[in-house]
UniProtKB/TrEMBL annotation:
Organism: Zoogloea oryzae
Descriptive protein name: Chemotaxis protein methyltransferase
Ranges of residues in domain CheR-type methyltransferase: 10-279
UniProt keywords, alphabetically: Methyltransferase, S-adenosyl-L-methionine, Transferase
Gene3D superfamilies registered for this protein in UniProt: Chemotaxis receptor methyltransferase CheR, N-terminal domain (1.10.155.10), Vaccinia Virus protein VP39 (3.40.50.150)
GO biological process terms, semicolon-separated: methylation
Function: Methylation of the membrane-bound methyl-accepting chemotaxis proteins (MCP) to form gamma-glutamyl methyl ester residues in MCP.
Enzyme type, top EC level: transferase
InterPro entries listed in its UniProt record: Bact_Chemotaxis_MeTrfase (IPR050903), Chemotaxis_MeTrfase_CheR (IPR026024), CheR_C (IPR022642), CheR_MeTrfase (IPR000780), CheR_N (IPR022641), CheR_N_sf (IPR036804), SAM-dependent_MTases_sf (IPR029063)
Catalytic activity: L-glutamyl-[protein] + S-adenosyl-L-methionine = [protein]-L-glutamate 5-O-methyl ester + S-adenosyl-L-homocysteine
Pfam families: CheR, CheR_N
């Protein structure tokens, strides 16, 4: 280990994140993901990147910035580190109550019911949607597309394994019906059953770029992600997404978000629940 490396190991520091460097990381995240980092996020950025600097044995944030700018794989790692991924099962339960009691029962015919979880994080949201759909739709075909910008959380979501403590929000009957308790080396965890995981197509999608051809949906969840966008970015994201929502389909934001000044193409049904007018 070099003298410089020893010094860093002892102090645990790679130097301070300067205002200029923070501004460069902020511009990078905006260009890559449309995320607007406020001045208050400077310490969060420094903290989340510090471990990566140690792993790469770099002498400062400026050196890491150069690495990120030159290496596409490292850019993805930086995005993974700097995107917020807090989530849990049945978060904001009124949305799932509405899905169960109104949105799904209203769908007529035998065509495949499709739902998009547009910021799925580590998978708790789409698996919650899947449990509700499995209960309500019985023998009718259905599927979920679950997307996120972070490859790290998508890998976790595809596996579908969680600490047992995370099961606290899942109703006991659904936990018993759709989850498997870990044993042996997996004790203390649970896993979503394969028949549920098989209904979900996890994909990396950047909401701030041209969207891939993923078809149209009866319901779109886009919760707890618009809060990180500025107004113009929100407008652009909604313009991209609206064509993917079928006429009469429902659009869900988190309870802390709304479409005021963003779009008037959707009609408010309830706070944070919108509907696209029927054709």
């Amino acid at each position: 280990m070099t003298t410089t490396a020893v010094q860093r190991h002892v102090t645990g520091l790679q130097g301070q994140l300067t205002d200029r460097e923070f501004g460069q990381f902020r511009a990078l995240m905006y260009s890559l993901a449309g995320i607007s980092l406020s001045d208050a996020k400077k310490q969060l950025v420094a903290g989340r990147l510090a471990r990566r600097l140690r792993q790469l044995d770099l002498d400062g944030y400026g050196s890491y910035l150069k690495r990120v700018q030159a290496d596409a794989a490292e850019r993805q790692i930086a995005v993974d580190l700097l995107t917020t991924n807090e989530t849990y099962f049945f978060r904001e339960p009124k949305h799932f109550d509405f899905l169960r009691s109104h949105a799904l029962p209203e769908l007529k015919g035998q065509s495949t019911v499709r739902v998009w979880s547009g910021a799925c994080s580590s998978g708790e949201e789409p698996y919650t949607i899947a449990m509700v759909m499995a209960e309500v739709l019985a023998g009718r075909p259905w599927e979920i597309v679950a997307s996120d910008l972070s490859t790290r959380v998508l890998a976790h979501a595809r596996e579908g394994r969680y600490p047992m403590d995370d099961a606290a929000g899942i109703p006991r009957p659904l936990l018993a019906k759709y989850c498997l308790k870990g044993i042996g080396s997996q004790d203390g965890t649970f896993m979503m059953k394969p028949e549920l995981r098989g209904r979900i197509n996890f994909r990396q999608i950047n909401l701030n770029a041209a969207l891939p051809d993923i078809g149209q949906f009866d319901v779109i969840f886009l919760r707890n992600v618009m809060i990180y966008f500025d107004l113009e970015t929100k407008r652009q994201v909604i313009r991209r997404i609206l064509p993917l929502l079928r006429p009469g389909g429902y659009f869900m934001l988190s309870h802390s978000e709304n479409l005021n000044g963003v779009s008037d193409a959707l009609k408010t049904v309830r706070p944070s629940i919108y509907r696209k007018p029927a054709a």
